Amino acid sequence: MRQKLELVYFNVALVCVLLVGLELGGQVVYYLLKGYPVFNTPLRTEGAVLEPHPYLVGRLRGGIRVEHDGKVVTTTPIHTRWTGAPADSNAIRVAVVGGSTTFGAGVTDTATWPARLQALLGPGYAVTNFGLLGYSTAESIIQMALIVPESRPDIVVLYEGWNDIRSYHDPEQSPDYYSHGMRQFGTLAIPRPQRRPLLDRLADVSATFRLALMAGKTLPRAADSIPIGPVFATPDSFVDRIYHRNLETLKLLSTRTGAYTLFVPQVLNDSWFARHEGGDWWTPHVDNHAMPELIGRFNRLIHDVCGSREAACEVVDDVTRWKWKADDFIDEGHFSGKGGDAFAKLLATRIRGYTEVRQPR
């Protein structure tokens, strides 16, 4: 009897050791594959300042400061990212709306392009950064309808495109970007309203479970594990139509506030897409090599919304004519401090040009 118990204890201990070893091995393999541990995604700094939102999945917490790996993310009491804007009520108010590139993913507060824009324009202007990770024109419409008008902007800068083209050739096409919206729970690391299955929750902390799910392409939470493929090098007329419709809506909402609207075409790191085969984790159904041409075509839809002689808006084409280099970005599309500075200078020139000939309301 004693020998049988000892054999049982030994087998249990052996299984435990094997499971621990398997998990440790999985953590090492996951780190080597991704460059970060399974329980610490690259969005850790940004994720620490997020909270749930009933219509936008998530928003910034108000009035906090988070520091990680030398980068600082500071938020304002109105749930926007710090830009250094003055509190002067007589300042010309500039609202910038967009996704993670507008938010400044991957860079510290002072290196985001809205903060650089504020520094370039000076104390006579007040720039408010409404950008957030993953926000597309769908989220921007909600912001422009419910949130941005409260800042009483004189000028609205709309930097849209990358997060909309993410829906290109999505198997579940929807006029409200349903798939993209559901993936925002993973992008923002915001818990879904319903209780998630045990295996999905285990994948949040266990490299073994996550690697197994990734191998089966069934991991629902992590944005970087969305199955890639098939990929296409052709436009998606359905998404083009929805994007154009949303831009029209944003223009109407901006005009309704009495603001002048600047539409800014999307800029990406073309050299990155030229070097990578297949699809990107963010745009899983778009051929990387075709992305520069497709995003250029996507950008041209803006001109149908805001004509060259439009009284209430203009398109800042200067950004597409600028000679962008690889070191202007930290990845396939987010600006480095250098790139953000160049982008801000181009916008500052346009904004000063507008305000010099027109009196803000």
CATH superfamily: SGNH hydrolase
The assigned CATH architecture is 3-Layer(aba) Sandwich
What is the β-strand count? 9
Cα-atom radius of gyration: 23 Å
Model description:
The chain is an alpha/beta fold and 361 residues long. The chain has one domain (44-195, 227-356): SGNH hydrolase (Rossmann fold, 3-Layer(aba) Sandwich). The protein is 43% helix and 11% strand. It has 15 helices and nine strands. It has helices at residues 2-34, 44-47, 100-103, 113-121, 137-146, 162-165, 178-187, 198-203, 207-215, 237-256, 270-275, 291-300, 302-305, 318-321, 337-357, and strands at residues 50-53, 57-60, 65-68, 71-74, 92-98, 125-129, 155-159, 260-264, 313-315. A five-stranded parallel β-sheet has the order 6-5-7-8-9, sandwiched between helices. Strands 1-2 form a two-stranded antiparallel sheet. The radius of gyration is 23 Å and the shape is globular. The chain starts with a helix and ends with a helix.
Characteristics:
11% strand, five-stranded parallel β-sheet, Rossmann fold, 9 strands, single chain, alpha/beta, two-stranded antiparallel sheet, 361 residues, 15 helices
Quick structural summary:
The protein contains 15 helices and 9 strands. The chain has helices at residues 2-34, 44-47, 100-103, 113-121, 137-146, 162-165, 178-187, 198-203, 207-215, 237-256, 270-275, 291-300, 302-305, 318-321, 337-357; strands at 50-53, 57-60, 65-68, 71-74, 92-98, 125-129, 155-159, 260-264, 313-315. Strand 1 (50-53) and strand 2 form a beta hairpin.
